[in-house]
């Protein structure tokens, strides 16, 4: 049995579905929304969907599907400072969103197709009219969005994007809004963000020893080029008291779901291996709008 496929419409449908999936992933995982990058990634998905019509089925086709999904997530979300675990999580979320949207559209269309004419006439044709496809797609997207918001509320974890600039060097990472971070400068009260120590080489100039911000560091070890930027922060734990050397960067930019804003804060460095959602920073809630 032969079937006619219109390449332009097939590209448009898959482009739209990929864009919606990327939007859902960004909302669910608190990733930044970039229309330009989402458009490029969705265009790749649309082109691949047309090319896949001429590719063989089986394990090779599944492998190509997986590689295309990984490439789409890289184009849409890849950011400096992400760990090796970020890409698998994003790819899995992307495929799950695709399955969710596709399943919802199939279920809604099946329910509509049980109604009286003119929907009954669709049984005689393999083509889905545009007046049916559009409301089905809208209902699917709304259901997925409300479902995603419900899951995020149940998780009770608030994440956001963080950018820290020092000269021409900068770090971009996923941050966790941590109410337990009470660190502040005793002189002026500025709050202290905590970055994972693995980001030190990305932010500090190559000629500055990264050991400066480790536990054994001493204020006398501060190089002259950084002395005006360093603050000594008292650090108290359940077992001992110590000090934390915090850095005053040029710019700290916090990106939430709705907006981005600059904050006047300091940056300290610590081991954050146990932070949720693969976050590389802990941000006091007072700095989040």
Write up what this structure looks like.
The protein has helices spanning 7-29, 35-51, 59-77, 86-113, 130-155, 200-203; strands at 159-166, 169-177, 192-196, 230-236, 241-247, 251-255, 260-262, 266-270, 281-283. A hairpin with a 4-residue loop joins β4 and β5 (241-247). It is 40% helix and 18% strand. The strands form two sheets. The protein has a seven-stranded mixed β-sheet. A two-stranded antiparallel sheet has the order 4-5. α1 packs across α4 (86-113) and α3 (59-77) crosses α4 (86-113). The longest helix is centred in the middle third of the chain and has 28 residues, at 86-113.
Primary descriptors:
289 residues; alpha+beta; seven-stranded mixed β-sheet; two-stranded antiparallel ribbon; elongated
Topology overview:
Blueprint: H1 7-29, H2 35-51, H3 59-77, H4 86-113, H5 130-155, E1 159-166, E2 169-177, E3 192-196, H6 200-203, E4 230-236, E5 241-247, E6 251-255, E7 260-262, E8 266-270, E9 281-283
Parallel strand pairs: 2-9, 3-8
Antiparallel strand pairs: 1-2, 1-6, 3-9, 4-5, 6-7
Helix pairs in contact: 1-2, 1-4, 1-5, 2-3, 3-4, 4-5
How do you describe this structure in short?
With about 290 residues, this protein is α+β, with helices and mostly antiparallel strands.
Give the neighbour order of strands across the main sheet: 7-6-1-2-9-3-8
Beta-strand residue percentage: 15-25%
Structural class: alpha+beta
- What is the mean predicted local confidence, pLDDT? 75
Number of strands: 9
What is the CA-CA span between the terminal residues?
Answer: 58 Å
Unreliable spans are 119-126, 153-157
Percent of residues in helices comes to: 40-55%
Number of helices: 6
What's the oligomerization state? single chain
Give Rg in angstroms: 24 Å
Inertia-based shape: elongated
Largest sheet: 7 strands, mixed
Helix/strand order, N-terminal first: HHHHHEEEHEEEEEE
């Amino acid at each position: 049995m032969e079937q006619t496929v219109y390449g332009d419409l097939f590209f448009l449908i898959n482009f739209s579905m990929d864009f919606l999936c990327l939007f859902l992933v960004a909302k669910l995982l608190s990733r930044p929304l970039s229309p330009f990058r989402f458009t490029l990634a969705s265009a790749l998905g649309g082109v691949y969907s047309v090319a896949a019509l001429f590719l063989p089925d089986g394990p090779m086709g599944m492998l190509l599907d997986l590689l295309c999904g990984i490439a789409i997530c890289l184009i849409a979300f890849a950011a400096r400072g992400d760990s090796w675990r970020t890409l698998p999580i994003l790819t899995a979320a992307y495929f799950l969103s695709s399955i969710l949207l596709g399943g919802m559209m199939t279920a809604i269309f099946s329910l509509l197709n049980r109604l009286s004419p003119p929907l009954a006439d669709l049984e005689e044709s393999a083509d889905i009219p545009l007046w049916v496809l559009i409301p089905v797609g809208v209902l699917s997207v709304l259901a997925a969005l409300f479902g995603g918001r419900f899951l995020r509320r149940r998780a009770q974890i608030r994440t956001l994007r963080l950018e820290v600039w020092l000269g021409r060097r900068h770090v971009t990472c996923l941050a966790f809004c941590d109410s337990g971070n009470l660190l502040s400068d005793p002189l002026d009260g500025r709050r202290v963000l905590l970055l994972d120590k693995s980001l030190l080489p990305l932010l500090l100039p190559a000629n500055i020893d990264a050991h400066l911000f480790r536990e054994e560091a001493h204020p006398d070890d501060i190089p002259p080029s950084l002395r005006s930027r360093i603050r000594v922060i008292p650090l108290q734990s359940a077992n001992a008291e110590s000090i934390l050397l915090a850095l005053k960067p040029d710019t700290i930019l916090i990106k939430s779901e709705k907006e981005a804003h600059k904050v006047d804060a300091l940056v300290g460095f610590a081991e954050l291996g146990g932070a949720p959602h693969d976050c590389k920073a802990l941000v006091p809630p007072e700095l989040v709008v």
